[in-house]
Every structure is written in structure tokens, then in C-alpha cells.
Amino acid sequence: MTSDSITPSTNTGAGGVPRLLRPVRAPARTKLRNGTWIIPGTGERTRRQFTLRYPPLDGPGDDDGMRSLAEGGTVKEKVRNAWHNTRVAAGNMWSWLKSPNGRGTIKCSIAYLLASMGTFWQPAARFLGPMDGKHIVATISVYFHPARSAGSQIEAVAIAVVAVCYAMFIGTLSMATSVLFGSVLDMVELSYALVLIIFIGGGLGFVGWVKQKLNNPLVSVGASIASIGIITIVTKENSVHTGVFTNQKIIQSLKILLMATTISTLVNLLIWPVSARLALRKTMRNASTSLGEMLSMIASGFLSGAEEDFSSCAFTKASSMYNSNLSQMNKNARESKYEYYLLGQERIYRQDKAIVKSMENLAQSLGGLRSAANTQFELLKEVSFGTPSAHSAVSPSTNVFSPTFGRSLSATLKSGSTRFGSLGAIDEAPDERSDREDEQTAAQEGPPTLSASNPSLLRTPSDIFELFIARLGPSMKSLVHTMAEMLKEPPFGVPGSPININDQFKQSLADAISLYNQARGNALEEIYKTIELGRTRSESVQADFEEVAAACGHFSFSLLSFADEMQIYLDTLDDLRDVTEQNKRTWKWLKFWKHIKLPFKVKGVDPEQLSLLKPVQRLRQSKLPQGIPDSIKNRRGTVGWDTAPQGEGIWDRFVRATSRNLLKFFKFLARDDIRFGLKVGIGATLYAMFAFIPQTRPIYAHWRGEWGLLSFMIVCSMTVGASNATGLARFTGTVMGAAFVLANWWISNGNAVALAFLGWAVSFGAFYIMVERGNGPFGRFILLSYNVSSLYAYSLTQQVDDDDDDEGGIHPIIASIAYHRVVAVSVGIIWGLIICRLIWPVSARQKFKEGLAVLYLQMGLIWKRGPLAILLRSNTAATSYMKMGEQAAMQRYAAHLQTLRVAANNEYELRGPFPFEAYGRIMASTQRALDAFHAMSLVTQKHGRLSPGEKALLYYTAEERAQLCARICHVFQVLASSVMLEYPLTDAIPSVMVVRDKLLGKIFRFRKEHIHDREHKTEDVDDGGKGPSTAPTTPTTNGNGGFNPSIDWDGGKAKVPKLDPVTVEEPDYALLYAYALVTGQLAKELKIIEKEIENLYGRLDEDAMLLQ
Predict the structure, then answer these.
(1) Contact, 547 vs 1076, CB < 8 A?
(2) What are the tens digits of pLDDT across the range 688-704?
(3) pTM across the whole model
(4) For residues 288 and 359, is the Cβ–Cβ distance under 8 A?
């Protein structure tokens, strides 16, 4: 590599002011020398050329898209374009029909057509009995459609059975209550009251509670089915009102359930069956390939210095493909559980689940690798566009610990195109042979482009990056290629088939890691030796060199972390292969009594098997963020009794105990899920009472109030925003369904065959919305409205047992039927919105703000522990500052906050719309901050035991790290308070970067003093290099696990012994530099969040007058 030539030049800008131009640099190098890499399949060491680049993914050609008819100059050309567009449209339609979504839409429409035969086909109608309600068969087939895997179908059938059985149970008890109190005891009003309160309020309230608690789409539709059954039996049928017990409706409901589930299941299994187990293996293969491609692209972009590679179409496509595969893979894993359990392959399911988890860990490590690369690019940009004064030397008296000490922006960043060009295939040098065993180290492999003996060549921090790539680039590229080849050969086949994994993979990966570790150590050692030789630079410029070198080390460490996860992934594949080869079938899940934990049953537990770390309780995916935690709420409620003087009398103790118990009971009732169930029960009771009042029952029956009550159950959601969105979709779908009813009835004139065909056409469009577009509720609402009007009207022509003369009887008035349903649905929607707004309203806006504030508080408290201080407190080899399960809990919490943000966007308030986009940017920065937390956790977990040099560094910087952790915690708490209270920020928020720069300066000072001590071994060790004590950590230590030299260790019981002179190696600095880099990322995201909050709520200055 030739030295960089810097030619200063100036140009005259506006106003004649000289403007400094960026230096022009010649290309440093165009090729990397070939490195030794391991062939994964054979373990052979080779130096054959290869490339990390993937061929460009060409999009559709010009002849594959639509052509504009206006392009043709003649009539012949216009006709040709029209014919071309017809062929393209037909080809696209045919491709869609062969796709999974297209086949799923066809399956659903076929199932709906067969289910509608329960109304149109006389033998099926006679099987269901003379009563009306036969259209419920088609409704259940819509709710539990067959466009799902076999595992999901098993789950759907089970939920449908439970829902119908629950409805029958409530209906039977309501009739029994009516007979007992209404007919036997002649207490009609009391029987009505009991039915309303217990079976309508309690029964439907429990349905609402279950729907909210489980928060599962299939459970939600099962709740709708149960609501239909309860509402029909209790409010519509006359048996409850007349005090007569009849089982006709119960038997008909069971027949309807049997027919609907049989049709849906047969269509699911016989027409293009879909196995969740096969789908899981397919998504696992796709995810593995996508991970390999992303790994190659990230490493390629880093080595070439081209940041734009991360925004290229190829990388974006691979990333989006993996993200879609990940969500689909988790969905398939959940559904495959039912298939595996039914087949007795529980152990294979557990191993598949472990592989999915391992792939998620690989993806997280890959995200850390990309973040490390972005950190390098951002750092080079920062030192690129600095002020010219940064080049000037500072006086020896410069205080590197002053708040003004920062990272100097002293160098000029060279573009990736001028640094390495494009990273193509590595050409072998003439003196190299592909079959020769490489016995040289990575430092010897690299060309001597920047000599460590001539540190003057390192004029800018970006030269450090070039030197790093020159030394470690070949080995890094070789390791990436070895792992990418493994990921591109996923061994997953059909479930039950052998797992064909190459036994050589693990050894090949171990050899590749060994080569990389050797080259990494040599490269970092050479970089820091080169930096040490340039001690004539100013302290601020030297700090830039240190930070860029640290970023290089951080990326190399992140790649090593990914390699460690790859080893775990290969071990998991071995476990799957062993379980598959054994092929042992068990049905342990049938032994339900073994899963029941009795409180009085105590097992003898081996003390050695006890878990010393209590895992964090898993945040259920069904729960919405609670907002203010129970610990804070309990403190609020008991602070009065805790601070009040305790009386000695019996009466005082009684009042205190009674008050606390009542408070505990009312807090239970104040839980969001309990309140929601009570709210649903109260609303349903108030609505259904018109069906039991003699004066209003005719009106309720005429306007089909049961469908309004069902709409209330569907619309009533946990938050006001979700209720608004569901209500709008429900109303729109009902109007569209009614319009289709009028059109189809007018076209068919009530003919069964024509109505069946036209209904199939409507269902095809509705299922297209549900399956292809993913808007399930809207498509269901269309078909539900169509069923209760069209199919119901045709059933009237068959002289069913129903009092429907007001709608035409055997000559139905279709317009009146459709109109009554639209009005009933509209009334139910309005009633649901009123209840959600008036009775214990849960604002998604408020929940989102509370949840975001609590998340910030939690993140601040976790960081306050000190990511590196935990390594000093613990003697274990692998320790993280985050407790078991905390990272996953915070990630799930953030995902639930995104759901609340979407719901809040549908809440309409007088103060204006919800700032959806602004909070979206805040959540994006929050997610990146969580990624930084995870990256730091990986660093501490995989670091191992501290060396003496690392301990000396950590104790030397203990004060700065404690200040930095406290500062970050403080900023998190300020942001949480501002979000929670919607208060503007002040301009006095302390800066995190100032303390971080003090930490970097302290590290640089330690390095200088250490070098000075090595040169003058006779001098005393500086008092800042105090070493660790063998005494345990006590409250006298500072907040980061270090100590204050001016105080006693362990509360004055023991003094901190001075650390003996230790030899600090260059790798000892990597841990602290990684901490500084991650902290810099975190500070950047906090600054973005602060700016967004300032834009939302404003900023207070010293002239603001708040007292009014």
C-alpha cells in the first residue's frame, strides 16, 4: 500500500471566503491478498480464489411488465400492447392461483360453497332440523376457514368445539333457571333478572375476558362463535322467556358444529393440504440461506469500505426475506406443535423449536455485526468532517478530563470507492499455489503496505482502518466464506427424513476460527504498536486513532461472536439428527395428570440441581403493556399506612388490616383484564334487557337486536382505538355485504343454484381480502352480513319454524331483511363505542405513554448496574449485567408498544390526531437502543475471565464508568418523565458524550502512563492503577462496581491493597473500547429520542414563567 498524498488546496466560496477542499487521495489498494480458508465439507485448507459478492438480482425485464396503451403510435401497436397486457395479466393470475395464497383462497371459497348447502340443499337442511339458523354453518366455515395448515386446523377445530360447548352450557343453565324460577316458583321477573345478570352479563363477560387475556386470533373468532350461540339461545328463542326447557336448539347447534367443522377439515386435508411441519422446514431452509447471504454482504461491505452496500437492493431484499421468514417460521413452529404432538413426535418438535431459537440468536448476532460496521462508518464520518483546528497539536497542559474534551474531528475520510474499489474475487499472487498448505500467519500473508516501522504514514484515523483491513481482511473474509457456505447448505428435509449434516462442518468451523483468532491477535497487536509509535500526536488526535482502532476490534469481536453462535447452531443440528434417527414416538401430553402441580405435593430436590438464578417471568405475548408496574402502585396505596403511627389497640389493628384487605380486593377489580370483562358484561346486560322487557321485546325482535348484541361483542375491545378501528371495519363490511345481497337476490330472483354460485363469487372476493391482503376481520364482516341476509332469506322460503312474517315469511322482502341487519349492526357498533368510552375507558394513547415511560425506566435501571462492573463482582467465566430473560422481555414489551401505537392512531380526540410518525421514529431509536443493550450483553457473556490487565483498566476507569452509567440512567429517567407527563424538556439535560469522552481520555492516559512505566520500570506505579480487592463488593463502592480511592473498602473493615505492577497487553483494551463504542451508540439514540420529544412537547428556557 502506498502512502497517502495529501495536497492542500483552497477554493473561493460565496463572498470570496476561502473554503478548504477535501484532500484528494489516490486509491490505496485494489485487491486483498488471498488467505487460507477451510473448505467446510472436507476440512481441507486451500487458497483458491473466491468472492463474497452475490450476482446482482435482476428484476423483471421490460417485456414482463405492463405496457401503456398511450405508447403506441398506431392502432396496430396499441392492439399489440393490449394483447401483451392481456397475456401478462393472465400469466400473473395463473401464477397467483398456483401460489399458496391463491390456493388458500380457492379452498376457502369451496368450503363456503359446501357449507352453504346446509341452506340450499334440502337433504342437508332436513338434517339440521326445521328451525332457522342454518346459515350458521357457513358462518363457522368463514370463521374457521381451511386456508391454514393441518396443525392450525386441529387448533381451530378444538377451539370451535370448546366455544360451541360453552354456549350450549350457558344456554342449558339459562333455560333451567327460567324453568325453576319462572314456571315452578312463578317468579318471572326474578328469573329474567338472574338470566340477564348471570348468563348474559357473566357468560358474555367471561367470553370477553378470555378473548382479551389470550389475545389469539383463533380464540377471538371462537369467542364470536360462542357469543352467537349464547345470544341466540338466551335472547332470541322463546324457551327462556316462556320458562320451557327444550333441547331442539342445542341439538341443532351441535349438528351445525359437526357439519361446519367436517366440511372445513375435509377441504383442508384433501385439497392442496398444507403441513406446518413441512412449512417449518421450508422456512428454516430459507432463513438459513438468507442468513448466509446477509453475512457475506455485511462482511463484503465492511471490507470494501462501502457503506452503501447496506442499502443496496440485494441486501434489502435478503433482509426483508429473512424478516418475513422469521415471522412465518415462528408461526409454523407454533402450528407444527399440534401435528408433532398428534403423531407422537414431541421430541422432534422440541429440537425444531431449539433450531428456530438458535437461528434467532444468529440473526441477533448478525444485527450486532451490522451495527459494528455502521459504528465504524459513522466514526470515520465524524473524524472526517471535523474542523481544521483538530489537526493542530494541543499543549501538554491540556486537561483531557474537562467537559470540553471531545473527539477531535481531525481527518479526512476516504470514500469506499477510492479505498479498496469493489471487493471482487481474490487473485492469487504468482508465487502462491492453490494446493500449498499455508503455514504463515495472517500478518505474513498481508502485503506490507503500511509499515509499522514508519508510523508517520498513519496521518489520519482512517489509515488505521486501512491497516486493519490489510492485516485481517483475508482471514476475516475466509472465515465469513466458510460460515456462509455452511449456512447455504441447510440440512433440513421432509420431517421424518434423515438430517444430512456433514460431520466435517464442526471441525472445519473450529479450524477456521483458530486461523481467524491467530490473525486477529496479530493484526490488533500491530495496529496498537503502530499507534504507540506515533506518540508525537496531540492527545485529541491520538484519541481519534484509539477510537477507530477500537471500532475495528469491535467488529472483529462481533464476527467472532457470530462464529460462536454458529458452533451452537451446529450442535443443535446434531441433536436434531440424533432424535430423528431414534424415531421414538411418545404421547406424554396425554398424561394430563402429570402436568397438574399440586401445592401440597413436595418433591425431594437435589440441592445441586437448584437454580441459583431466578429467571425473569416471561411476558405473555397476549398481554398488553401494563404501564405503571404493581410495585409502584402498591407503594402508592400503602404509603399512608406505612408512614402513619401504628396504634396498639385492637380496633387500630382491625382498621389497618381491613383497609389493606379491601384495598387489595379493589386493586384486583381494577386490573385491566378484570375491568374489561366487567365492562363487557355490563354492556351486554344493558343491551339484552330490552329482549326481556315485555314492552320492548317486539321492537328487539323486529329489528333483530341479537345481531346488534353480537356486533357489540365484536366491537368491544381493550382500548378505545382498537374499538374504533373494529367498529369502522364492521360497519363498512356490513354495508358491503348488504349491497351484495340486494344485487345477488335481484339477479337470481331467489333461485337456489344461482344464489349458491353468486354467493361463491362473493366469498371468493372476501377470502381474497382475508388471505391475500391479510385483513381477516373486514372479509369476515362482509360474509357475515351476507350470510344473515341472503342465506337467511332463502331459508324463509323453505317454511322454517320461525316468526318472521314481518319480513315477508315464505316470500321474503330482501330489502327489509338487509335493512334490519344494517340498522341492528349499526346500533350495536354505536353501543360498543359508547361502553368503551364511558365505562373504564382504556386509552391506547395513555397506555402507550405509560408503557414507553416504564420501558425507559427499566432500561435506565438495567444500565445503572454497570455492564462491566458485573465482571468485577463475579468470578464466573460468563456473566451478563442483564438477568436471565430480561432482554427477551424488553423486546416483547417493545413489540406490544408498537401494537398500542397502531391502536392509538385510531383514537380521535379534540386535541388533535396522535403523532403516529413521531412516535414511530422514537420507537425505532428505542429498538436500536435495545440492540445496543444486547450487543453489550454479548460482549460480557462471551468475554470470559478478566485478565490482570483488564482488571487494572476497569479499576482505573471505575469513577468515569460509574458517572457514565449514572448519566445514562438519569437521561432515561428524564425522558420517561417527559413522555409520561407530556411536559416539555429543559435545555439542562446533561450530555452523555461529555462523560464518555472523559472515559476515552482516561483510557488514553492509562496507556501513556503504562508505556511510560514500561520504559521506566524503576518509577512507582501511579495511584490511579489500584487493583482489585479480594473483599466482596459493598455499598461503599460506587454505582459501577468500582471504588472511590478516598474511602475505605468494605465500610472501613479492610483497605484496598495496591495492585502489583502488571503487564497490560493490547487485547486488554478491547473490552473497555467495546463498552465505549456501544455507549456511543446508546448516546446517539438518546439524543434522537430527546430531539423527537422536544419537537412534540417543546423545550423550556430560563425565561419561561410557569407560576400562574
Answers:
(1) yes
(2) 999 999 899 989 988 88
(3) 0.76
(4) yes
